[in-house]
């Protein structure tokens, strides 16, 4: 099958070529083959529009303008026979200027002239039938082919010019530039060259996609490997949870069954990739006003035996899925071959499919914009009311009790109780009958009013920003040894203003350096295990640390003794991560498969009678379990400004988003990486910008053993 801008080509009665004009709905029947037509391809140019048909005994090039004129004159149209007796042809392709045709017959590729019968070159090297070949448009002498031997090859076609009576191009022996290893246990069936990103995309008979870079210094490295079965299951589960429908009103839970939901006696089928083609998705949304920046990328079609899929090249995720069996008017459920128009006309794309088991062909008209809108969760369009807001709109957690949370900076009310102090010694404090209740959560009792007010205004500090015009740091400026003997550094954390650096070591200590690493400002010891995490308070006066000994400690930067100790009796597992949250109003920590929100009050004063007893208080507000995971491997929340959002990653490779204002999980993203995420980093932006919260464009990165991904926090993509 083959599709052009307004034409579809397909075999009729096996050996007759039918060209159907979609604009006029007039078929053009062309005869010239004696055996079944096995390969078709349209030319790259539209004037004149050429089509090449191939069978076992001959390869014919047709000029559609001349053929149409011959039919109108009542004559029989004839094509140019450019090749004969080449064998079983599986694929034909015109070069960019339509002067040559690459014919894949058996294990060889024949370069034929499109003007007369002449074999310009014979390219061999594959060990099994060649299934597809494509010309590189920006380097016209390069040809790339894939084969059933499960490899792809890149060839440089050397040109030599001969002068006789006419100027004739003759291809000499093709030079092999690159040969891949065996990619899979299944044959490679399809191939596409992405001109914009200079990549090649190939698919196999088992639903696997590989993307390789064609940039000269990348040495054909693999950019991505996509399992379409898994992506399809993820997409269908995502759409099912949103209540969206696919097809003619059928619920996705019915058509998108995972392997665990298949009925007894059913057979698992493979997902052969019959076609990879460019998708003109952006054109369909060019009239939209609220268009998301996520659309500024490339998309491509995947034609499989069961349906059509749209893949986003930026994140390699599924954008839309169309299943053949969901349309009652379509009698083809399993396609044997597939073709698509490269460009959309009036927002619609023509798709030509043939049945795998019957002599039947169907033409589908796909409305791209409607297909994507009906299956997306408002990801593509911004400005919707249901989008995720990273910036807190108020300073309250409605689900929290007032016993645990009071608004920071609330004005204290004087007590009406008369002054009746009970004092036994001048060094022992009063019982506190006349003292107003402490209303701020993160101010120790021994701070003076000036210091408290200073702490409040410290929230308005401006962090040092990395200059945009500077290149990324690639040169080591300074190196120091933190201990006398080799000791692993388990974690490091800069303070918010970048002036101080805290390091947690495996020797149970926490070190503080200045940013230039010229001086050790302080050393904290007291943990009985390696320090897993350290975190600074927003005002840079406190440091929280978590250790393998199942304890959490809050340290005063000016004092070597801990202001607060949470003992191992409070935690059933090791605390992997701890940090201050909501501008030092809370502490967040993760233990096992849950994270906890703690309210606290710090008091570093000592009682002469009970010096061993700490006066700092900490209470559990709520536990938040992460679904279907054994352990939280990473946690991230913003402390530089008010935000309800907490991000967690689990050992099951899932990313979960919690809204602490609602007190529940609001989004679950499965399989964000092929390995467990060990670090989540948020771009905190400018927390005191004059712009509205809607203007924030916050991002996060997730890091795992397979690489780093950049996410938009508003769309979770």
Automatic annotation (TrEMBL):
InterPro entries (UniProt xref): Quinoprotein_ADH-like_sf, WD40/YVTN_repeat-like_dom_sf, WD40_rpt, WDR27
Coiled coil as UniProt keyword: no
Record-given protein name: WDR27 protein
Organism lineage: Eukaryota, Metazoa, Chordata, Craniata, Vertebrata
Gene3D superfamilies named in the record: YVTN repeat-like/Quinoprotein amine dehydrogenase
Annotated keywords: WD repeat
One Pfam family cited in the UniProt record for this chain: WD40
PANTHER family: WD REPEAT-CONTAINING PROTEIN 27
WD-type repeats, residues: 524-565
């Amino acid at each position: 099958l083959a599709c052009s801008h307004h034409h579809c080509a397909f075999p009729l009665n096996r050996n007759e070529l039918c060209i159907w004009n979609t604009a006029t709905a007039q078929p053009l029947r062309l005869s010239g083959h004696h055996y079944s037509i096995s390969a078709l391809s349209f030319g790259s140019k539209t004037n004149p529009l050429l089509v090449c048909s191939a069978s076992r005994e001959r390869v014919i090039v047709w000029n559609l303008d001349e053929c149409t004129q011959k039919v109108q004159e009542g004559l029989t149209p004839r094509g140019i026979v450019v090749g004969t007796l080449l064998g079983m042809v599986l694929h034909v392709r015109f070069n960019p200027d339509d002067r040559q045709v690459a014919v894949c017959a058996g294990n060889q590729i024949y370069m034929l002239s499109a003007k007369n019968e002449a074999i310009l070159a014979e390219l061999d090297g594959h060990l099994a039938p060649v299934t597809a070949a494509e010309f590189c448009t920006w380097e016209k002498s390069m040809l790339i082919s894939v084969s059933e031997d499960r490899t792809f090859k890149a060839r440089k076609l050397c040109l030599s010019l001969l002068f006789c009576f006419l100027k004739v191009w003759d291809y000499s022996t093709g030079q092999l530039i690159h040969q891949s290893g065996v990619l899979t246990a299944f044959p490679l069936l399809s191939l596409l060259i992405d001109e914009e990103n200079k990549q090649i995309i190939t698919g196999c008979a088992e639903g696997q996609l590989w993307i390789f870079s064609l940039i000269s210094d990348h040495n054909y490295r693999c950019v991505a490997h996509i399992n379409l079965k898994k992506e399809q299951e993820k997409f269908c589960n995502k759409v099912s949870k949103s209540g969206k429908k696919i097809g003619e009103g059928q619920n996705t839970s019915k058509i998108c069954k995972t392997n665990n939901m298949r009925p007894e006696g059913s057979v698992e089928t493979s997902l052969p990739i019959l076609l990879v083609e460019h998708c003109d998705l952006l054109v369909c949304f060019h009239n939209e006003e609220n268009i998301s920046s996520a659309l500024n990328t490339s998309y491509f079609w995947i034609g499989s035996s069961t349906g059509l899929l749209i893949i986003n090249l930026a994140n390699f995720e599924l954008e839309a899925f169309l299943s053949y069996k969901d349309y009652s008017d379509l009698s083809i459920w399993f396609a044997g071959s597939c073709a698509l128009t490269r460009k959309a006309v009036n927002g619609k794309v023509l798709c030509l499919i043939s049945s795998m088991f019957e002599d039947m062909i169907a033409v589908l008209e796909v409305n791209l914009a409607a297909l994507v809108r009906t299956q997306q969760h408002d990801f593509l369009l911004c400005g919707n009311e249901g989008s995720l807001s990273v910036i807190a709109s108020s300073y309250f957690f409605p689900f929290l009790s007032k016993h645990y949370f009071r608004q920071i900076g609330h004005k204290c009310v004087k007590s009406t109780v008369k002054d009746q102090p009970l004092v036994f010694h001048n060094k022992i404090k009063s019982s506190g009958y006349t003292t107003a209740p402490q209303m701020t959560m993160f101010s120790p009792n021994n701070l003076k009013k000036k210091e408290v007010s200073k702490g409040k205004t410290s929230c308005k500090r401006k962090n040092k920003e990395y200059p945009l015009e500077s290149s990324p740091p690639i040169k080591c400026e300074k190196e120091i040894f933190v201990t006398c003997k080799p000791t692993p550094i388990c974690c490091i954390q800069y303070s918010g203003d970048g002036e101080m650096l805290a390091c947690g070591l495996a020797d149970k200590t926490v070190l503080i350096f200045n940013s230039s690493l010229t001086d050790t400002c302080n050393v904290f010891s007291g943990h009985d295990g390696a320090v897993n995490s350290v975190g600074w308070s927003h005002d840079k006066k406190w440091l929280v640390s978590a250790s393998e000994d199942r304890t959490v400690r809050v340290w005063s930067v000016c004092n070597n003794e801990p202001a607060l100790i949470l003992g191992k009796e409070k935690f059933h597992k090791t605390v992997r991560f701890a940090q201050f949250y909501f501008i030092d109003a809370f502490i967040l920590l993760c233990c096992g498969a849950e994270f906890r929100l703690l309210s606290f009050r710090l008091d570093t004063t000592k009682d002469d009678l009970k010096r061993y007893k700490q006066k700092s208080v900490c209470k559990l507000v709520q536990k938040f379990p992460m679904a279907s995971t054994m352990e939280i491997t990473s946690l991230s929340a913003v402390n530089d400004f008010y935000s309800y959002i907490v991000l967690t990653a689990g050992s099951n490779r899932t990313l979960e988003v919690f809204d602490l204002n609602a007190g529940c999980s609001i989004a679950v993203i499965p399989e964000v990486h092929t390995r467990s995420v060990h670090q989540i980093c948020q771009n905190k932006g400018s927390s005191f910008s004059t712009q509205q919260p809607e203007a924030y464009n916050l991002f996060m990165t997730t890091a795992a053993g397979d690489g780093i991904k950049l996410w938009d926090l508003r769309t979770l993509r």
